[in-house]
Design brief:
single chain; about 425 residues; mainly beta; Methylamine Dehydrogenase, Chain H; 4 helices; about 35% strand; disordered C terminus
Length: about 425
Amino acid sequence: MSSHIRYNLAHNRTKENLDRFIPNRSAMDFDYAHYMLTEGWKENSISSPSKEAYRKRMKEVFGMNRSRILAFSNKPPAPIPCTTNQLDLDHAFVVNHRRRRIPQTSERTLDCPGLIDDYYLNLLDWGKSNVLAIALENSVYLWDASTHATSELVSISDDKGPVTSVSWAPDGCHIAIGLNNSEVELWDSTACKKLRTLSNGHQARIGSLAWNNHILTSGSVDSSIINNDVRVRGHVIETYRGHRLEVCGIRWSPSGRYLASGGNDNLLHIWDRSMAGLNSSTQWLHRIQDHRAAVKALAWCPFQSNMLASGGGMSDQCIKFWNIHTGACLNSVDTGSQVSALLWSKNDRELVSSHGFPDNQLTLWKYPSMVKMAELNGHTSRVLFMTQSPDSFAVASAGDETLRIWNVFGTPENTKPSKETAPEPFAHVNRIR
């Protein structure tokens, strides 16, 4: 052993209880160290007495075995799997806490006496002109979200009513009203004037409506789906037949090519309008039988044109995602509650669902992890209907004879209150009727 190493060991023993040991680079034998790293290990492994004495002395001085330095004392624990869900949860937590607060209470609550408690109807829609339409028994009321003014658009006679569906046209001025007697009325909301009645197509109530430019599609309890061209006298131009029971949900894709329809027969159909023939029944592109209850909730993804989200009723309670080109199920999430409606955010990869029994709540999800970002409670019975504001930030939900406005997807940048501005109180209660 070199004199430098013996000196430092003796010096360290003397000072071990007084101060920490700081090595002196000038006292290190780098040539010897380099030799031991490159060539010394090749020598005969039989230890000499001097080497054994040295190792024993090192144990006594440092209280450790050199062979265990930088080695695991036990088998290293298995790493905690970092799933996509966890990554997205962390990301959602950071992003959403940095960018916005998700209110847990509705911003506004409106009383809606006479709201029909029927899961298969569609009685609420928010138009491009920022006006909400809601059907209460035989009447349709309009609530201007900008001015908070309420007006009655129409009251239907008992032999035609009640109103079973409402849907704003893309222009935000005209509205379609489906009736219990199988007719559809078109109204000019600005002039409060009925423009025409569409009949001779269905044989029973119209529970669902959807627009595709000038094409108004209606779904009925008679299980048929009809495309109506509202510009022409002979308005029935295509009929889709495939459902066995009431059609309770229909949605056109943003491109206007594909139609998704869901029914009380637990079936989900995808229809390709390019395959439609004039005045003929059209074969579906996909028939999907994975849901175990009525399929009412349908929402086309705004950032992935070939993806559709669907939600099932009480015996299913699942949100499923579909590739409509192949018909494959991309994911399925058990929500634990009846799904009545689905809406996508237009600004973030988020999805909100409304629920009936047993939870009666709205749930905000992060896509694609489907981690819950927020649960919004307030309704005292099942949430039957849900629609989205024109700017896509707010949603309206209806159930328990109330209409509630929720700031789910954030606030537009140009309307965000400054830090100095006190927030407006949440619980405004107005009476529609």
